[in-house]
TrEMBL record:
Domain FAD-binding PCMH-type: 26-196
Subcellular location: Membrane; Mitochondrion membrane
Recorded GO CC terms: mitochondrial membrane
SUPFAM superfamilies noted in UniProt: FAD-binding/transporter-associated domain-like (SSF56176)
Organism: Funneliformis caledonium
Protein's UniProt name: D-arabinono-1,4-lactone oxidase
One protein family per Pfam: FAD_binding_4
Family: Belongs to the oxygen-dependent FAD-linked oxidoreductase family.
Lineage: Eukaryota, Fungi, Fungi incertae sedis, Mucoromycota, Glomeromycotina
Catalysed reaction, written as an equation: D-arabinono-1,4-lactone + O2 = dehydro-D-arabinono-1,4-lactone + H2O2 + H(+)
Amino acid sequence: MIKIEDSRLRKIVKTNIKFSNWARTFECIPELYFEPENDDDIIKIIKLAKQYNKNVRAIGVGHSPSDVACTEGIMINMEKLNNIIEIDVEKKTVVVEAGARIDILNECLWKHGLALRNLGSISNLSISGAISTSTHGTGINFGNLSSQIIGLTLLTASKGIINCSANENEDVFKASLCSMGALGIILKVQIQCESAFKLESNQYPMKLNDILNDLDSIIYSAEHVRFWWFPHTENCVIWKADRTTGDLKIQQPSYFKDHIVSYHLYQFLLYITRYFPSTVPLLTTLMFNYKFSQPKQVINASYKQFNFDCLFPHYTNEWAIPLEKTKEALEKLYKWINDNDVFVHFPVEVRFVDKDDIWLSPAYNRKVCYIGIVMYRPYKKPVPYKRYWAAFEEIMRSCDGRAHWAKAHTMTAAELEKSYPKYKGFIELQKSLDPNGMFLNLYLKRHLFGIGDKDYFKAKL
């Protein structure tokens, strides 16, 4: 049992706290749950963990739909380390604490005439959590969120606090930009921003075959392109966005259409399909016709354009494949769904990301297509998904895919070593910075080292 003698630590600790991720698919009860308010608090927590040889995991918002954040040891909630430390309008940079929420940062930057150049589908994330799992948006010439970081401060187990950037401790920098917390705790980051800009987005329906037959042209037809395919149909919705100086053009949401029907009624009907799964294709067609069959144009602030509503909790799986494999992968997935007695939810989301040089980024050294699938959990109830997941991952593997680190997946250490040229270097660095494995949990041991939790992969499939 851990005995806390430090009076400060006693003020910021809780016990018997159950942590659950946003999707309610993984949970844990850490032995101690800390809510630090400054770097000194975290240093004291790490000292305590060393004294008792306890595992430590830092968490942000907890949105990652996997067990990447879970621990039975010491959990550190970074929510209160959320200060925006410095905004340099001339250099277009911002320094923030690791727990700063991206959605709040977006608003603050906009007031100073700045913006992040690209964002993911949601911004209710901590900056450190987003970059630690290589969170991404879309745009074939735009990298993931980690690629916008130009410096960070990392608290390690063996070497204390390390400041790193492209010019200082470069190896640590390139490894820590997508490290899942395996190297230490990120304390603060410096982000390269841009002048604030507006985006004009155009969303309209297309058929899957038309997209695949003109894929290369479509991918490069706008700065940001993504599309959603509705399984069991040929229907897709494509979204394109480019920078503009035009006047704002905002479509106000309809409470009835967007909230009552597209959220509450849809969730209720999904619940019904748990008992009548063969009705899923009909429901998908009805939702497409009701919600997505008409063109839509919007001009708004960039950060308001990138994000969209993820609706309710769901199981999700997402992999990045080489860009040139996009058509092959989607044709294989289309064929598998139609050839098998399965009924899966929409959407299949397809996004495009530029290559980078971040050691464990799924886009390391190659432009990629991210393909993501979901199975909604109406009212947080379970739905069958494992057969779908197994087939999807088999297709992704056949296309030289790399799994999204935030999502539950079954990539093994042997597969990672084969797929990532910098894998061995990352493992060596991890052992150097964390020789006793303080920052490793079951997720990291399972995927990075191939140890423990041996039945996980069998259970997932």
